[in-house]
Amino acid sequence: MAAPTAATLVERLRGLHLRMVDAVLSGDGLERVAELTAEAVGGSVAIVIPRLGRAVMAPAGTVADERLPELRHYVADLVQDRPAHAPRGVAVEIPIVSGDESVGTVLLLEGSVHAVSEAADYLHLAAVASLTEVAVEEARDEVEQNLRGSFLEDLRAGNTLTTDELVRRGARLGCDLSRGAIALCAELHTDRPRHVVATIAEDVPGALAQHMDGTATGGSGGRVYALLPAGAVDHAAEATLAAAARLAARLQRHGTVGLSSFYADPAELGRAVQEAELVLDVLMVSGEPIAEDINQGTYRLLFRVLASHPEEVRSFYEDTVAPAVRYDDQYRTDLVGTLEAYLAANCHMSATATAIHAHRHTVAYRLERVRDLTGLDPMQSEDRERLGLGLKAYRIIAPRLPR
């Protein structure tokens, strides 16, 4: 009688395995795998996979809702090789293993109508089916990442996309760009780019974010690019700008963050991405002093112009402070720094001298050299305005000037 019983068990296991795999491939997922396992063993079964952020239990109900948080914590400790104490009532547990890595666990929580060894066989099948679900989810995630990366790369490259195509591709990725968006570009100094992407998704619902490694962006740690869409509210620009500022502040501990201004027209989102890159490049070179002013109107206007008509900003720079910049580079002087200090001190000579630790006669001499080189007199209000704007233009194009 033993042989027929064994053959019957094998047949039951094979049939159950096929049903589980079919459930995964048809989209019913872990919930159906847990249900099939619970029916087979005649007890309560939980499947917990931290890598996917998933935990399900069958039969579903109040008990399942109460136990799942505890089981999530337990399995998370297991897969991280941390000390873990099995919760009460766990009769059998089977790890879900990918290669040499444990990615989750299948647990039998209550007494089974079958022997423990037979119940373990059913749980092994559930573990294999769950691993198939992991493979399907990761393949789907890889495809979506490729789509996000391709979309953002098209915007970075300035490829011409119609408004309809932009909105359609964004919608396909769960991002509604029809009301406009802000672009974000962050240079990372963390080894947790997925955490940064997850933070963006958490803070700005519907955001589209993607990590690009150092090879693609030229940086060692890589960059995260994101589009932060406007919500369906009045004053969408103001609300989106406020949300973007909060997000940027939160991400500062992971890297340097550049934000574009708000672009209401989806057709201009390529420029938004370029503007965010420009802001980031300036922050990477200039550091804190400019970071305090970079969201002011004049800087924002220059960034927008630079993203669309870079030759105009470069021309203005050449017509104003460029000769002084080149003079400083050639003779190791500090005409530009002195001019900046003079304007910051409201054109007060003594305050400027104190700020740069120089004699006021030195300040006067350097300002005269600025006048001689540029044809603009720092002592004249109209010329000061042009010089001040020229300095801002210089700061935002400095990272891209020849060295």
Question: Can you give keywords for this protein?
Answer:
single chain, 403 residues, alpha+beta, Beta-Lactamase, Alpha-Beta Plaits, Arc Repressor Mutant, subunit A, 3 domains, 4-stranded antiparallel beta sheet, 17 helices, 60% helix, elongated
pLDDT averaged residue by residue: 83
Inertia-based shape: elongated
Q: How are strands sequenced across the largest beta sheet?
A: 2-1-4-3
Instruction: Please mark out the parts with pLDDT under 50 across 5 or more consecutive residues, or reply none.
Output: none
**CATH level 1 class label of the largest domain:** Alpha Beta
Write a concise synopsis of the structure shown.
The chain has 403 residues and is an alpha+beta fold.
Tell me about this structure:
With 403 residues, the chain is α+β, with helices and mostly antiparallel strands. The chain has 3 domains: 2-140, 2-Layer Sandwich (Beta-Lactamase), CATH 3.30.450.40; 158-308, 2-Layer Sandwich (Alpha-Beta Plaits); 312-400, PucR C-terminal helix-turn-helix domain (Arc Repressor Mutant, subunit A, Orthogonal Bundle), CATH 1.10.10. Helices cover 60% and strands 12% of the residues. It has 17 helices and 8 strands. The protein has helices spanning 2-25, 29-41, 62-79, 116-156, 163-172, 193-203, 214-217, 236-251, 269-286, 288-291, 297-308, 310-319, 322-331, 335-344, 349-356, 360-374, 381-397, and strands at 45-49, 54-58, 92-98, 101-108, 181-188, 208-212, 223-229, 255-259. It has a 4-stranded antiparallel beta sheet, with helices on both faces. The chain has a 4-stranded antiparallel beta sheet with strand order 6-7-5-8, sandwiched between helices. A hairpin with a 4-residue loop joins strand 1 (45-49) and strand 2 (54-58). Helix 1 (2-25) runs parallel beside helix 4 (116-156). The longest helix is centred in the middle third of the chain and has 41 residues, at 116-156. The protein is elongated. The protein starts with a helix and ends in a 6-residue tail after the last helix. The model has no long low-confidence stretch (mean pLDDT 83).
